[in-house]
Amino acid sequence: MAWPERRIDSWDNFIAIATHLEFGPAATFAYLYRGQSQFTWTLEPTLVRVLPKDIDEARAVQTEEDCYRLFMERAHLHFTPKEIPETRSRPEWWALMRHYGAPTRLLDWTTSIYVAAYFAAVDDWGTDGAIWLFHARSLIEQLVRDLSWRSRAKTLLRGAQPDLGLHVFRPLKLSQRIDVQQGRLVYQPRLLSNMADFIDARLGNTHASGKGEAYRKLVIPAQVKPLIIRHLRAMNITAVSLFPGGDGLGRATHELAKLSTVYPRSIDVPQ
């Protein structure tokens, strides 16, 4: 079964969908969103993208461990103590690695559909983009139900977190970028597991039964991308706000240049 899809044909259509999706209590979130500039891309973390397609799990994990150790052993040479994780927790270190461009198993998501729309629409204007979304609580509840009573008992006795097959977290030391992008980091214990198939297999029945909208893929047509970016710009969702620093400013000028080719400045003055 494939992810249910819905096509966005206008800004008004996008706003209607965004308004329809449940936001949840103010201190929490309901859905996680991921924007990708090409509709055909699957949910694949950077580490998996750079590894050979025929690699097995053991070799992939060993490569990941080599990258982790290389980064961790030299981190003190390049970062201040405040930036370095205070524990050897792999996810915390992966978050720091991810921030500085190292390949990891982490996949970036956001609790804001507008931030996801930016990433789906800002690049590749000749190709359709996509916003992936899933209802986090529904997925976690389903994963807990999937655990056998024996697995639950062993986990409780060990005082450990259950291995649900997928984990959502935020680093203890948030980077400014994760903070402003309302980011969440998602990873799977099995490095080479296909996240899209994993979510689809657990939540597919919700759509088949018509009981809810637990997950979906929103298609952003190529011709709608400039319009999306123009409206988001008016909402101050630009590279400057999402990528604090000089890098974001440079990206923002690139966005403006591209928009100017689609929406040239008018010399007409309203009377």
List keywords for this structure.
45% helix; 271 residues; alpha+beta
Instruction: Give the percentage of residues in beta strands.
Output: 5-15%
Helix proportion range: 40-55%
- Overall average pLDDT: 87
Q: How many beta-strand segments?
A: 7
Count of DSSP helices?
Answer: 12
Q: What is the radius of gyration computed over CA atoms, rounded to a whole number of angstroms? A: 20 Å
Shape: globular
Low-confidence stretches: none
Order of helices and strands: EHEHHHEHEHHEHEHEHHH
Biggest sheet, in brief? Answer: 4 strands, mixed
How would you write the strand order of the largest sheet?
Answer: 1-7-4-2
Secondary-structure-derived class: alpha+beta
Distance between the termini: 56 Å
Folded structure, characterized:
The protein is an alpha+beta fold. It has a domain at 5-45 and 106-139 and 168-187 and 194-262. The chain is built from twelve helices and seven strands. The chain has helices at residues 11-20, 46-50, 57-74, 90-99, 113-121, 136-146, 149-158, 176-180, 195-208, 225-234, 239-242, 246-262; strands at 5-7, 31-36, 107-110, 129-135, 167-169, 183-187, 215-220. The strands form two sheets. It has a four-stranded mixed beta sheet with strand order 1-7-4-2. Helix 5 crosses helix 10. The longest helix is centred in the N-terminal third of the chain and has 18 residues, at 57-74. It is globular and about 50 Å long. The N and C termini lie far apart (56 Å).
